[in-house]
Every structure is written in structure tokens, then in C-alpha cells.
Specification:
three-stranded mixed sheet; Spore Coat Polysaccharide Biosynthesis Protein SpsA, Chain A; alpha/beta
Length: about 400
Amino acid sequence: MDAGAVWFSLPLGVMCVHRAAVWFAVGRGALGQAHRLPGKSAASGALALQGEGRTRAPVTWLRPLKAGVPGLGEKLARFVEIMCANDEAIFGVEVGSEEERLCAELAARDGRVKVVVCDAGAAANPKVAKLIAMTPCARHERWILADAEARIDAEFASAFRDEWEWTGADALTAGYRFVGMGTWVQWLDALAVVQTLWPGLELVRAFGRVRFTLGACTGVRRVDVESIGGWAVLGAELAEDQQLGARLAAAGKTVRISEAVLDLESEPMTWRDYWRHQRRVAVTYRVAAPAGALGMILTRGFTICLMLAAVWPGWLTLGNAALAAAIHVLAVAVQGRRQGERAGGWVGLSLIADVVETVCWGLSWGSSRVWWGGGSGGSLPGVDSSETPNLRQCAKKFMRRLASL
């Protein structure tokens, strides 16, 4: 085989190695999670807690709400119903908003509910601005942060809280999956979670130390947030969830990815919304974790093979692209099945999603602005990222990480 054939086949080979590593990680994580919890799983630990007759520690649920979430009133009402008697829920809302009216009605019916009208100017990051206003009202030492789109049912809440207590983790964060997709655009947006987020989570759980949290749902203690300087230190961060986990890990705290998976309601979106969301995610990740963002190109085997076939068409490049497409679709179908999704036409859309994510990855290296807090609710200017490491610096850092494995 000549050198040209080797180079043309390299992306396919890297793709196969990446997929094999993911599935090794999945298998390793399924073996009682012995590398994280000696001899027992979080589920067995929860049963042990129940057997000892111990009650759950009370928590304060922090729910910073945003506009435009479909069926929000019904979601929040169901959520309040499944709360434990000694819990409390704090909803952060904007003054005069529909969310304020809905939450005020809930608070009038249930004394465990508090409504905090937040000052959007408290921080550049709108979610952090709400948390700054909400947490002084919290009665309990344990906090669980959850997004407005989260479908929190009794099963998830119980599993998440029991795991947090049993494992002794300082912070617990939950992976998520989108539900309620009704259009191609919503499926494309949801596929980023299936084909990009979850393989990364599996690898970190198996081989690395968790140095991040996920914004959908995270459990953290008041004292630990205060030890890193409070929410105010995250006010100018694009990825406050990633920075929260990074700062906790740097302080010697243990961050764990939960075995419980959270359902997030898929938001209605246009093609423009989808494109803006993917751009925002790519730029946010590049700013927050530049070395990790650089390494993501190794996971884009299908799109790279497709590009090579388009520029240098031939039996080898076309064959590699076809094989890469088959491997990609199969891997996405299997990963989707692990998350409870039956195989269907959405699996084929993963090829389009991979191309879009790769293009956004490339564009992120030349952009310092994002549509922050976008979606159908409008757009906000992003944060200047001119001080973030450049491509050369990221490459050096990424190679040092590979060498340390």
C-alpha cells in the first residue's frame, strides 16, 4: 500500500479506534463500576440506604427559568408534586414574565415553592445571574440545579438523590437525552447528544477524572460552591457548567457522572435556530476547553472521509466514505438504543448532523462571538474570546494529554 492510500485511510482507522474505545468503555462501565465504586453499583447502594431505614437529606431545587419553554406550567406542577415533603423549590424568573405568573400561582398553592425575581444585570451569563439571586433564599445545604426543559419525574429524582448520598461524591451531574422530537430539525439537534456527548461521557467515566458538570442537572453543596468563590466567579463564563466542575475538581472535590439519565424536552426550532445552536455549542466548547475541542476532530471520521472523496474521488476514498458512513450509522443506532430510542429514519440524519457539527467545529476557531441564550427567544452577543489559547497552543496541550495517557 502506497503512502497516499495510508493517508486516505487514516481518518477511517482513527474512527474505528475511537468507536472501539467507546465500546470498551461501555463494557468496562457496565461491570459493577468497580473502578469508581468498589464492588457495588449506585443502585445497590440505594437499596442499602433503604434497608438501613435512612431518609433522604432535604434538598433545595434551583430552577432558573427561561422564556419560551412549551408547557412549562404543567411541567413545573408535576415536578412540585414529586418533591419530598421537606424539600423546597426556588424558581428564578424575570420581572413581569409569563414564568413569574405561573410560578406565583404554584407558590400560592404550595408553601415549599419560592419565586425569586432576578436582575439580569447581575452577571453576563443569564443563568448565573439568576443563580446569584436565588441561592441566598435556599434553606438547605444540598442544592440540585435543573434546567427549565428538564422532565424530572419521581424515578429520576429518587435515583439521582440516592446515588448522590450513597457514593459520597461532592458533586453529581446527570447526562441527558432529548424527548418529544417532532421535526427533522429537532432530531438533528438531538443527535448531537447521541453521537457526540454520550461517547465522550463514556470515555471519561471509564478512563479519566470528571472535571466538569453538565448544565441540565447537577447536585452540589452550598459549602463547595462558596469554597470556589460563589456563583459570581462564573458570571462571565460561556460554559458555567464546565467551569463549575473544573473549579470543584481543582479544589480537590469529587465530581461524578450519574447513572440516572435526565429527559429534556426538545424545543421547537427552525433551521436557523438549529444552525445558531450548533455554532454556539462549538464556540462555547472551544473557549471553555480548547484542547478537548481540538481533539474532537478525531471523532469526525465520516465527514473527513466524505471530504477526501469529494476532493480526490476514487475507489479507495469513495469506499472509505461508504464504510465510514455504515460504521457511523451503526454506532449511532446502538448508542440511541442504549438511551431508549428505537432505530428509525432519524439514524440516517446522523450523517447530516455529523457534517454540520464538523463545519461548526471548523468555524469556531475563527469566531469570538456566539448567539448566547438564543433559540426562538432571540439572540444575545457572546463573550470576547480573544484571550483564549490559539490553535497552536491547543495542539501542544492536546499532545501532552495524549502522552500522559
